Amino acid sequence: MSGRRLTRREFVASTAVTSAALVAAPYVRSAHAAGKLSIGFWDHWVPGANKASTELCNEWAAKEKVDLQIDYITSQGNKNLVTIAAEAQAKSGHDIFQMPTWWCHSNSDLMEPVNDIMEPIIKQNGEVNGTVKYLGNLDGKWMGVPACVGSQIKGPCSRIDLMKKYAGIDVQEMYPAGSPPKADNWNTDTFLKAAEACHKAGYPFGIGLGETSDSVDTAGAFFQAFGAELVNAKGDLTVKTDNVRQALEFYKKLVPFLPPDVAAWDDASNNKWLVAGKGAMIMNPPSAWAVAKRDAPQVAEQLWTHGFPVGPKGRFAPFLPFFWSIWTFSKNKEAAKSLLVHLSKPSSIEKMVDASGGYDLPAFENLTTLKVWAEAEPPKGTLYHYPNPYHHQVLSIAASPAPPKVAQQIYFQATQTKMCLRYAHGEKMEDTLAWAEGECEGFLRS
Amino acid sequence: MADVAFQQNRIARATSTRRGSSLRYALKRKSTAAFLMTLPLILLIAILVVYPAFYSLHLATLNKSMQKFVGLGNFQFLFRRETFWLVVKQSCIFAITAVIFKALIGFIVAHFVHNIPAKGQRKWRGMLLVPWVIPPAMSTLAWLWLFDPSYSAFNYTLSLFGIGPIPWLGEAGWARFSVILVNIWYGAPFFMIMYLAALKSVPDQLYEAAAIDGANWWQRIWYVTLPMMRNIIAITTLFSLIVTFANFDIVRILTNGGPLDRTHLFATWAFRVGIEGSDIPLGASVSLFMFPILAIAAIFILRDISKRGNEA
Prior knowledge:
The structure holds 2 protein chains of 2 kinds. By secondary structure, chain A is α/β, with parallel strands linked by helices. Chain A has 2 domains: 8-150 and 322-365, Periplasmic binding protein-like II (D-Maltodextrin-Binding Protein, domain 2, 3-Layer(aba) Sandwich); 153-318 and 397-445, D-Maltodextrin-Binding Protein, domain 2. Chain A has helices spanning 8-24, 49-64, 79-90, 103-106, 115-125, 130-136, 160-167, 171-174, 188-200, 213-225, 242-254, 269-275, 287-295, 297-300, 333-343, 346-355, 371-375, 404-412, 415-424, 429-443, and strands spanning 36-42, 67-73, 96-99, 137-138, 141-142, 145-153, 156-159, 281-283, 303-305, 316-326, 394-396. In chain A, the strands form 3 sheets. In chain A, strands 1, 2, 3, 6, 10 and 11 form a 6-stranded mixed sheet that branches. In chain A, strands 8-7-9 form a 3-stranded antiparallel sheet. In chain B, helix 5 packs parallel to helix 9 (172-200) and helix 13 (266-276) packs antiparallel against helix 14. Chain A binds chain B through residues 77-78, 81-82, 85, 89, 102-103, 106-107, 109, 210-212, 259-266, 269, 272-273, 276, 278, 405, 408-409, 412-414, 418, 421-422, 435, 438-439, 442, 445-446, and chain B through 63-65, 77, 80-83, 149-151, 165, 167-171, 175, 252, 255-261, 271-272, 274-280.
């Protein structure tokens, strides 16, 4: 310790010099100068599909000097839902999380608004469909950016040969590759006739009536084709209506033509059914076709993905979007938004869709005619109509247009498939409706 | 006993030492040492069990959006739900049936194993424990393939004899049977090993005395074996009842609660409502409903054990 005292003049001089040096010194950016960012992505089914997301994120992180951490969280056993619940409770975790269908709404208070980036993204990529708005937007606030990764349409995937031979329907002619559908006669009546014919021939349609997503989505699309809503957009109970009765009557006619064990089917059952060559149609994204291409090429070359049959109230297809959302507790929201803008560039989206072999679907209007769907084979053009390129069917989700927090309960309690099963198994129509009304009444609690 | 003697010794010596040294003596006490050694585990349990338990109690008193205190409102709501009472009924059927059969099979197999000569017994004990050792999530997947709606190995085998197909998971009655069967398969070895240990501790002299008195096989079981095993049977039953009531993985993997909710248990329905339906307070209330049922069972069983302990 020096005993010398600093005079006031010396102190002022030295601080002035230090301040000047600090101001004049060049700003040296370290490798991670823009801080840290962590992402919880959905772990893709398709082998190698995660690689495209990783590359895009790393490319952005290197440019923006951000220390990036990516976790791929599986939806097997709903692990991603458990993680969302845990992070929402702890108000801590990833900065960005890939939210499935209903989870933006169920965590709406914890979702950072992304309107500032959504508007330019929509301008760049085209308008989003109604289901994306229903699930991702609350009172004008965008709660996430629609993620192409994992988003899917669960439309019919038919056997060309079996449908032609037994049902007299040429699905390739009805949905020709490269041109608009000629599916005016593809309605719920012709669908029932085809189901009956294929059942008689020993190749029943593989449509589940279990409690998992695939079964619920199909039932939801048929309910909408009949205009059957259990709860309407205002939140009123609308179970006891003629439209709901018509939808149940349709299913009552359909169930005898389905495999006898459909009540126990899960999301893997329909894929196995088609790949094993046991059925003429399932409702699924092209994952079953992709597996068949690998394991049963003779089945794959007979598969054609196309649109839903039209019902009295329109042609609806189940669309399940994912969203990239930023938690309000994120510590690096600006970096998160910058990354989401990067991932939403048309070139990034095309790269991710290619990596998934065409499974992933962008929600934007201008991005439904990428090369991957036109070129996928065998047979050439099998996925051409998968992304709904001519918008000839309304993309929807089961239980909509009920308020999303109510619809989520209807969806996960599989109320619609249970109604179909109860009625098809002999319960009286009014009893089934009364049961469903009681259930929905419970879902309205706030 | 030793601890008491040690304390007396300490009290005797304390008269001749200063008060400041009492901490040293406290640390020397066996109970203090034992407490300190178990402290990490106690803390772990406090963090992983006690805190979540109280947190779920707190959650169960909130409304759906978790912004308002509703007291017992969630339970009142549940009591009005038809599905909730279906779940209560099914959980009771599942747990009670499975525990009875596990106990019965465990008891019978334990006797078989007990009667195998000591040389070959270890091999059998090891083999019979396999179902209990395999993580249930994995073994249940194998059962799922055996019961698979379309490709069931059981149905294939039965079809060779002109039987079936049986809708193992597609019809409510069969689905309940299937989930209970898998739970019995998984849990019976635990009963077997506990009962085997109990059987080995029954003194041979009691059987010899019974034989001299002319007791037959059934009388030996009824008057010697069962009374000697009562405490083990009670503890094992209680433990298994708790675990079986709280079962999740078997139903989740095999039926996901279906068909038509006919195989849901408290845990699977709580997951459906709380996590999948994003109604965490209601999910917490469903899972907490198990607590009073199990607490009452535990009180009765443990009171019986301690009564017998005092009589002894």
